[in-house]
Every structure is written in C-alpha cells, then in structure tokens.
C-alpha cells in the first residue's frame, strides 16, 4: 500500500506539472527539465519558463504539502478523540485563522500588494491562538480531557466566528475579499509559500509519525495505556500540538479547505486497516495526492477562471461525509 500510494503521488505531481491551463506542451516541458539538468538550451520562452518554475511547480508542491498536513492532522485528531468525525479544525484553528485574516484585510486593504503579504502570517497566528485558547479553556474547566476539549473547541470556534462576523459587518466593503480567502485556494508567486510552510509541516509530520504507535496504544483505553507505561494526557498534548501546528501552517497559505481531514483517513482505514502506524503515513501521502488532483481540477475546469479549491473538496467530501454518518449510526445501533 505504501509503494502504491507513493507511486500515485509521484504520478499525480508529474501529471499536474506537465498539464495546466497554459498549454506549454508535454514534450517541451520534458525538454525544458532535461535542459536544466544538462545545461542545454531551453525550448521555452522566458514567460513560459516562469509559468512552469515560478507558478505551476510551486503550486503543485504547495497543494501536496497542504493536503498532507490536513489529512495527517485529521487522522491524528480522530485517534486522539477516538471519533471518526473529528477534523483538523476541531479545536478552533479555522475560526482563529479566519479572524486573523479578516482583521488584516480590514486594517490593511492593500496588504496583497506588500512585499510580504501579512494575511498568511495573521492566519497562522490566529489559528495557533484559537487552539491555545481552546486548550486554556479546556484545562481550566476540567484538566484538558478529550470531552472537555471538544466542548471548549465548539465554544471558542463560535466565539471567534462571532467576532469575525461583527468585524465584517462593520466593514462590508471587505466581505468579498474575506470570503474569497475563506473558500480556500492556492495562489503562489514563486517558492515563498512553499518555503514558509515546509519547516512547520515537516516538523509536525515527523512528530505524528513517531507518535503513531502511541495512538494505537491509546485506542485500547487510558487505563490499559497507563498500565503499559504511557502517560495518555502527555501523548494527547504532543499529538494535538503537532497536528495543530500542521493545520495552522496549511490554513495560512490555503484558506479554509474542508473535508480533506475526514475523507482521506477514512478511505485509508477502509483500504489498509485501522492501525495508526499504517493510517498516518498513508493519510499523509493520500492527502497530498487528493489535494493535488483537486487543485488541478480547480485551476483547469473553467480556465482561465478558477474554481475555489474549497468548493472542489466539498463536492467530493460532502457525499463521503454522509456515508461516514450512516456508518457511524449503524455502529451505534
């Protein structure tokens, strides 16, 4: 399964790089890559080379990073909360990111023209702030147990969403820009976004993969895990922090892209089993593959217009979400 998933990801990345709204020609792109490797003459014009190396390839890789972060975080959240409907936005990351981005858009309407766009930074800090607020509220209310954290996440998300709606109501001229960001999408102007998110996502991925065996132990219950020498509260904290870091990094450059963290881990479980030593790495690879495909559809389906990436994932994820609900209901009977 691992080899098949890696092969699928490589094929999708190569295909999305070769094909796009701007027809550069598959043969000419291959010749361009060969020219870069061997130092030969490029068959592409300067503009075409910029499209390939500064727009298309960074965007494909960014889609892979974001998809891996969201799917891996979703699998980790489902393992910690032992809830198949848990997703990366459960602890207020989405609401915090939305509020951070809204404040910047309202305060600095021309921020997109700055040398360094502050919206991703504000969204990243807002997402981490939302998770931190949830954790603080949960810890003060009941020691940070999973049930308390779930309720705290709902409360914090509702509170931050209310603040965001209030800010938007006071600044109706920015609503379109805010909702465009919230619908999700990937826009790159070079490698800056990839380099911005890569360290955080890479660190979180390493931590989650190392914690996969511990999530398997937690699945049998806290008492059994404690008898085996684990500290369940500490393991949950480490996993949630890593998953929240990955989610915040992804949201900061992509906006709010839904369903990836639910759909991909469930598909992996149906195909490869329930052990997190399998689910986590395959979810990371599967999430990257899924979002690269979704982004390709978003940028080519109605070219030169572009469909918001969140709309594409919703079209795929909503029917699957209904299936998950039905399966969960059958298990509860």
UniProtKB/TrEMBL annotation:
One of its GO terms (molecular function) is transmembrane transporter activity. Its main location: membrane. InterPro entries: ABC_BtuC-like (IPR037294), ABC_transptr_permease_BtuC (IPR000522). The keyword Nucleotidyltransferase does not apply. SUPFAM superfamilies: ABC transporter involved in vitamin B12 uptake, BtuC. One of its GO terms (cellular component) is plasma membrane. The chain crosses the membrane at residues 60-77, 89-109, 121-141, 147-167, 194-215, 235-264, 276-297, 309-325. It is a multi-pass membrane protein. It is found in: Cell membrane. It comes from the Bacteria. Keywords: Cell membrane, Membrane, Transmembrane, Transmembrane helix, Transport. Belongs to the binding-protein-dependent transport system permease family. FecCD subfamily. This is Iron complex transport system permease protein. It comes from Herbihabitans rhizosphaerae.
